Amino acid sequence: MHVLVLGGGYAGVTLVRTLEATLPPDVTLTLVDERETHLVQHLIHRAIREPDLDEQLAIPFDRVCSRTDHHQARVTGIDRDAQTVEASTGTLSYDVCVISLGARTAFYGLDGVAAHATPVKRLDHVAQIRQGFQQVREMGGRAVVGGAGLSGVQTAGELAELAAEADTEPEVVLLEQADTVAPGFDRSFREALRETLDDRGVDVRTGQSVERATADEVVLSDGSLAYDQFIWTGGITGQFDGRRAVRATLRVDDRTFALGDAARVVDADGDVAPAAAQTAVGQAETAATNVKRLVEYLRDGDGFEPRLDRYRYSSKGWAVSVGDGTVAQVGSTVVRGAPAHLLKTTIGSGYLGSVGAISEAVQYALE
Ligand SMILES: Cc1cc2nc3c(=O)[nH]c(=O)nc-3n(C[C@H](O)[C@H](O)[C@H](O)COP(=O)(O)OP(=O)(O)OC[C@H]3O[C@@H](n4cnc5c(N)ncnc54)[C@H](O)[C@@H]3O)c2cc1C
Fold first, then answer.
1. pLDDT digits (tens, 9 = 90+) for 8-37
2. Do 92 and 42 fall into the same domain?
3. Whose CA is nearest to atom 53 of ligand 1?
4. Are 157 and 198 a contacting pair, CB within 8 Å?
5. What is the whole-number distance in angstroms between the Cα of residue 11 and the centre of ligand 1?
6. In this predicted model, what pLDDT tens digit does every residue of 66-103 receive, in sequence order?
7. What pTM was estimated for this model as a whole?
8. Domain that includes residue 139, residue range
């Protein structure tokens, strides 16, 4: 029996760590990921200012997995009828497959945006942003961040701190097509984020739709904006054909599950779970139970179809950094400053600890 987990982000790693403990030892567990390391993506914007964080945020898979075989390859397709996965290393077959490939940046076909903007999904993007902003600082130029979701807000916050240290008065502009930053979040949280961005000197412009981009200008629905650096955090889409729609059992078909950013999950209450690290981790817990039940059913070869658990989204709260300012929401309470920063640090180091990266967790908390 072979369980194949595609993608070792928050969803995939949390899932295989649970399955390692719960699946019978003769079930083969393989994690396919194109990288050598598990990336703690929700903190990568911090590496714009602190390049040394790279090492704490990229943890080799052999440190986070024990009996799982990490197969380094790029997945290019899945044939669910044949129960095979096409990868850069060849064809892999499975009995049960879990799709947790995360998402890629969506450019929505906006002319010139993919060609001229840097996304914020990987550490090499972050390094590119750091280098590009160095030039913006030297010339007193303008960096434009398109999209004020969590990644855009946090990226703009980091750039604003770097801008504040420069004598040349570089500008950081954050564009958002909705009429608020962090659309979809509670009003008090959005307002606190907006005030923190304003305090740090980010020029926030809401109600601004990006229509296209040239090498030096972002064209908006009602004008244009010259830039020296363009960063795009305007949205996400699935790796192949959009984010896969799944119900609360996370099941795509008899042998396949999907979760994390790769899926658009309608939970047990009928709500769409937000694309977030905490969602991916929560769904991995449900997926682990369901994969185990399906494996038992397939091995025994008789009896009734297994009863599968249903995922229910429940927010553990939010902690978002805006440069050195942090805004957190726990329940309906919004806090800022030192308590929020402490919460953000605790979440980051708590996650690192939960995947077995203890020294990184300690180092992160200390820094
Ligand atoms: C800058 C930034 C800040 C964020 N801040 C927050 C925050 O404060 N709070 C929060 O909850 N969320 C935040 N997020 C969102 C959070 O990081 C994602 O929701 C989370 O990473 C989703 O987890 P996942 O396991 O579904 O996918 P990922 O973590 O993206 O993992 C997907 C894995 O699949 C692998 N992969 C992808 N394609 C292929 C392929 N074709 N072949 C092989 N392997 C592949 C990748 O290498 C990766 O290891 C932030 C994201 C960004 C970018």
1. 999 999 999 999 999 999 999 999 999 999
2. yes
3. 121
4. no
5. 9
6. 999 999 999 999 999 999 999 999 999 999 999 999 99
7. 0.95
8. 113-232
